[in-house]
Amino acid sequence: MILSTTPTIEGHPIREYKGVVTGETIIGANIVRDFFAGIRDVVGGRSGSYEEVLRQAKDSSMRELMERAQRLGANAVVGIDLDYETIGSNNSMLMVTASGTAVLI
Question: Which one of 18, 21, 25, 36 has the lowest number of neighbouring Cβ atoms within 10 Å?
Answer without folding.
Answer: 36
